């Protein structure tokens, strides 16, 4: 049996600041494309590409389903075949070749060839996205066994994600408005602007990816032999028959806790998708608001995440998640009954950003806490969570678009009501789930 002295060097392994920063560069391309995909894809397909709402929703659902299925597949491939950085390169190349095509300015929805281009480019993009995500996440345990070091890598990764989202909205803010028609809604003639935005983001993503591969040394990711002892010890521990008696109870708790994450993801994803449509419907600040309102929402999310650790110390995990759900429900109430003034829209953006951040970070912390030493199950749990998140979100979007009102005179506030409803229902799901697992939380 290994002694504590033999294990301690591994557990105390330090990572240099340069390594942590280099690691953060590895997911920036994904973060840039994700912010663009969720914030502007639906409104782009409907207003610029001139697709029917049901078709636009179906394309978004297609992307979600492909991402959902490819995530566990790459979980197996990355662990068993080739090196992690090779999978990262493959995924990045797929994104580079496909993502600009999605916003390529095709506006002949009746043409079957154009639809085939959209389907293929979305399929390649989401497959590449999953490859980069899984290979990048799998590098965290490969780089270090220290929980503190892993937490640092996760925090830096989240900071890079926020920075990438801010970059998307800043680029959109610069490129999208025009002096002569800043108050005009999006139309087919804006296609070249979206193309310029996407090409700019792709260039930034490629630079970040190159820096990642240059400065993150491959030898740091290939020291798997050092961890075999810990893996074998974990297998002996969980092969114990006593643990089988509590297997069903543990799985039930894990899945219910995972639903906290699903509710949080449902809230932030649907709010991100329908916030631009709600902004356009109100005609507040025209196209400029399509960049500034999501930017304010993301900044409030970042600030809430920074403050969360102080709130958590005084209130506990359960109270933190409850606070996040109440903020999310409040955002739905204000969206529905607060009116369409500029101030109200920015208040809604702030509430959505802070509520999503609090529930998301808390849900991830709770899931990790419940998994505890059962790390051999963590991949299964996160795969199930990701699958449910992607599929449920896609199904909700396509059903909303299927029943979309096409006569503004009869439903002038359709997007406002939709945003309010999805925020309220997703946070209500989180609230119900919270009460079902309240005994497991502090």
UniProtKB/TrEMBL annotation:
One of its GO terms (biological process) is carbohydrate transport. The chain crosses the membrane at residues 21-42, 54-74, 86-106, 112-134, 155-176, 196-216, 253-277, 289-308, 320-338, 344-367, 379-398, 418-437. GO terms for molecular function: symporter activity. InterPro entries: MFS_2, MFS_trans_sf. Keywords: Membrane, Transmembrane, Transmembrane helix. GO terms for cellular component: plasma membrane. SUPFAM superfamilies: MFS general substrate transporter. Belongs to the major facilitator superfamily. PANTHER family: MAJOR FACILITATOR SUPERFAMILY DOMAIN-CONTAINING PROTEIN (PTHR11328), MAJOR FACILITATOR SUPERFAMILY DOMAIN-CONTAINING PROTEIN 12-LIKE PROTEIN (PTHR11328:SF49). This is Major facilitator superfamily (MFS) profile domain-containing protein. It comes from Heterotrigona itama. The lineage of its organism: Eukaryota, Metazoa, Ecdysozoa, Arthropoda, Hexapoda.
């Amino acid at each position: 049996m290994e002694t504590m002295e033999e294990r301690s060097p591994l557990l105390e392994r330090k990572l240099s600041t340069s390594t942590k920063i280099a690691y953060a560069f590895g997911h920036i391309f994904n973060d840039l494309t994700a912010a663009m995909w969720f914030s502007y894809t639906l409104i782009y397909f409907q207003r610029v590409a001139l697709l029917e709402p049901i078709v636009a929703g179906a394309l978004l659902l297609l992307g979600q389903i492909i991402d959902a299925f490819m995530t566990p597949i790459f979980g197996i491939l990355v662990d068993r075949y080739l090196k992690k950085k090779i999978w990262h390169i493959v995924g990045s190349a797929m994104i580079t070749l496909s993502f600009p095509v999605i916003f390529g300015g095709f506006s002949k929805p009746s043409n079957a060839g154009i639809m085939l281009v959209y389907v293929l480019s979305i399929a390649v993009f989401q497959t590449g996205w999953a490859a980069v995500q899984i290979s990048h996440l799998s590098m965290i345990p490969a780089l270090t066994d220290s929980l503190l070091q892993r937490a640092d890598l996760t925090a830096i990764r989240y900071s890079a994600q926020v920075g990438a989202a801010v970059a998307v909205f800043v680029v959109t803010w610069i490129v999208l408005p025009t002096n002569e028609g800043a108050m005009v809604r999006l139309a087919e003639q804006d296609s070249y602007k979206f193309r310029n935005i996407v090409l700019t983001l792709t260039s930034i993503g490629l630079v970040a990816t190159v820096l990642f591969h240059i400065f993150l040394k491959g030898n740091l990711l290939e020291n798997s032999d050092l961890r075999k002892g810990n893996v074998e010890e974990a297998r002996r521990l969980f092969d114990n028959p006593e643990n089988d008696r509590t297997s069903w109870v543990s799985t039930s708790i894990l899945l219910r806790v995972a639903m906290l994450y699903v509710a949080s993801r449902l809230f932030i994803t649907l709010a991100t998708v329908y916030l631009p449509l709600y902004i356009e419907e109100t005609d507040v600040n025209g196209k400029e608001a399509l960049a500034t309102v999501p930017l304010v929402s993301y900044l409030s999310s970042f600030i809430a995440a920074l403050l969360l650790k102080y709130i958590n110390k005084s209130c506990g995990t359960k109270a933190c998640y409850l606070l996040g759900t109440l903020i999310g429900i409040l955002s739905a109430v204000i969206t529905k009954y607060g009116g369409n003034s500029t101030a109200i829209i920015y208040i809604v953006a702030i509430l959505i950003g802070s509520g999503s951040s609090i529930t998301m970070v808390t849900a991830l912390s709770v899931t990790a806490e419940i998994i505890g030493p059962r790390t051999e199950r963590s991949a299964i749990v996160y795969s199930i969570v990701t699958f449910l998140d992607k599929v449920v979100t896609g199904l909700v979007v396509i059903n909303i678009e299927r029943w979309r009102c096409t006569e503004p005179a009869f439903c002038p506030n359709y997007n406002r009501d939709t945003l309010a409803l999805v925020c309220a229902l997703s946070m209500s799901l989180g609230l119900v789930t919270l009460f079902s697992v309240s005994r497991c939380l502090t």
